[in-house]
Structures are given as C-alpha cells and as structure tokens.
C-alpha cells in the first residue's frame, strides 16, 4: 500500500510538469470534439491530483490563425510555461490518452535534456509533398504521426522563431533537427494509433477513437454540387477516368472547360485555359454556383479532372458540419504562417465550401489578380482577409497514395487522392476509395468506414 501511495505521489508531481496542447480548430464541430477531449483529460488528471495540468486548445491560444502549424506558437508556449513545466504533449482531436501510462512513458526520459518524442513515420521514396527531403535516402528521416500524440521537452523550445511556408509533418521534424544541430525524433512505443478498443493496444498510452455514428445521417447527394475543372487537351485522357470511377455517385455534376464538348458534356465559362493556376475559372464556378443556372444546394465541391474522390465518404464527413456556417474544408496548407501569412485548401485534394462560405466570398472585394493565379492560394488570401477559418481534414490528399507514409494511411479511410502521374488511376480508386461491401447508397457504407470517419 505504501508503495502504491509513493507511486501516486510521484505521478502527481510529474503530472504538474506537463502541458497538454490539443490541436483544435475553430469550426464548431471541431471545438466540440476538442472540448470533449479536454473534459476526459481533466477527469483523468483530477483523479490523480487536485491541481490538474494546463490543457490548452490550440486554436484559442493567440490571434495568429497560423498556430495550427505548431511552429509559430512554440515561442509563446516557451514564454508561458518554460519556467514551470517540463513537457509539451500535443494531441489531435481523435487521440485518446491514458494519462498514467503516458506519464510512465515520459518518465523514461531526462526532462532536463532536449527530447522530441513520437511515433515515427518515414517516406518510402522522395516526394513532392515533403519537398523531396533526403531525396537520396528518404527513409532515414523520421517525422511524427500527429494522431499518436507527440511531445517536446521544454529545453528544446529555446530556439529562434520559425520561418514557415508549406507546413506538414516533416517540417516540424526538420525545424527541430536544425540541419543536424538538434535532436531527431525518438520513438516511443507507447504512442500508438491502434483503435481505442483493440486488444493489441493494451500497452498503449494513446489510441484513436472511433466516433461513429457521431454526426448522424450522411448528407444527401442532392445537397452537393460537384464542379470538375478540365480543359480540351484532357477531355479524352482524364475525364474518362472520372466517368469510370466516381462520377456515378454524383447527383449534380458539371464539367467546366475551355471548350464545349456535348459528348461529355462540358461547359465553357468563357475563361481561357491557363498552364499554371486556375483562379479565373474557379471564381467563375463560384459565381455560377450561386446563380440560377444550377440547382441550389448546401455544399459545393470543386475538384480537378485528375482528382480521385469518394463521394459517399464525403457525404458521411459533411454530416458533421453545419452548412449555415461558412465552412471551407479540405487538406490545409499555409504560406508564410510564421510571418503573418495565410492558410488555404490545396485544390488537388478537393475544396469543399458551404453555400454560406461562397456567398461571403463573393460579397467581398476579393478577386483574382490574374486568371492564371493559383486559385487555392488566392482563395486562402480572401478567407484570411474575411476572417473565415480554413478547416482541415487529413482524409483529403493532394498527392498520390505512394506519396504518403504507409503507416499514416493505415489508420485512415481516405476521401481523396490527386494526380494520375505514373499510376493506374482506376486501380488506385478501386483499392483506396471504393467501398466494395456497400450498395450505391451512402446508407450502405459498412460499419468500419463509418467508424473511421
């Protein structure tokens, strides 16, 4: 009994040196998830100590919209907790924590030294999404799986402010590594991405939740208008792939091109094709969406002609969001976030907008500075100017499956991938995005798919 109380006192003392940071988002759905996670942590920690540790929601820490990318907020956290704490533990909204097991795992490391802890991921081959880092041997560089939780010791925070442009998992690791001057990621076996109730997760301090049926019935396909951006030179190359794969799941879909082709059919919006960005075309799509030319729907999906997407899975995901809010959803990137930049949804993985968001965008003075400007980045600048949040989902992917770590994709049911380069896109769709055990109705999605979403 004495040994038990000694251990409990040790846990209490160590717990007071930890700061939990939930990587939350400002959208109402994500705020509610983060609040539930904070309540669970408080319940666990209050059973161990009368003075619970700080449990922070990332989106509410400062006025900097780019705090989601982690690096800009590290100096602030160092200033606030550097003298009285030992660890920063970062959690995603779906990460479940067993606090006592987490404390036992952290106690293995000397908190007075620089530590970067997590579940390691690595690239099988060099990839554009990680800027071809370590191109000769990409597997040697490890970066954390954010879903498993990851931790920094406080001594590691005494660095100069970051200069961040395209944030992703590797850039946190690259910044901390600092060209070999800082520590590499240290693997912690207790940080896991096993399902919450899996028998293989008994040793885990962290697991992933299965929230089904968290958000109710799927959004009806009649409530989603799909806009596919294409051009004449891809009418016979990319459009047939869309028709063979996911077009049949769409109720309202139009192809927008620089050439009218009745056999598809395509619609010429009067914007010439451009080799670089497609800002002019995308803003013309937004204008058409709110006009009387198309049926009125709650949601707009804008995709490229080489985007592969599961519309039934998107219907499931959208059931979590309120279309009366200005929702802008997809894979979030950022530009210059450490210097007052902006976030944006990468266009290749698909950009989803609520009607409320489109109306707000078009009512502003924000426009394309050129027809060939990058549409996703211009939209990001517009949203930033309007104070509208960009909402991230890791289920959208702006590259091919080969460009992501296998372990990263292993605990996902993805919604989209992008690019036909050096792959069989129909085979990729059938492997990654087609739910073989369901009917064509989204109500027929199998249980495992619902739980992952």
UniProtKB/TrEMBL annotation:
Keyword S-adenosyl-L-methionine on entry: no
Major location category of this protein: membrane
Membrane topology, record value: Single-pass membrane protein; Single-pass type II membrane protein
Annotated localization: Endomembrane system; Membrane
Signal peptide region: 1-24
Keywords: Glycosyltransferase, Membrane, Signal, Signal-anchor, Transferase, Transmembrane, Transmembrane helix
Molecular function per GO: glycosyltransferase activity
GO CC field: endomembrane system; membrane
Domain Fringe-like glycosyltransferase: 218-423
Pfam family for this entry, one: Fringe
Protein family membership: Belongs to the glycosyltransferase 31 family.
Record protein name field: Fringe-like glycosyltransferase domain-containing protein
Gene: LOC112265010
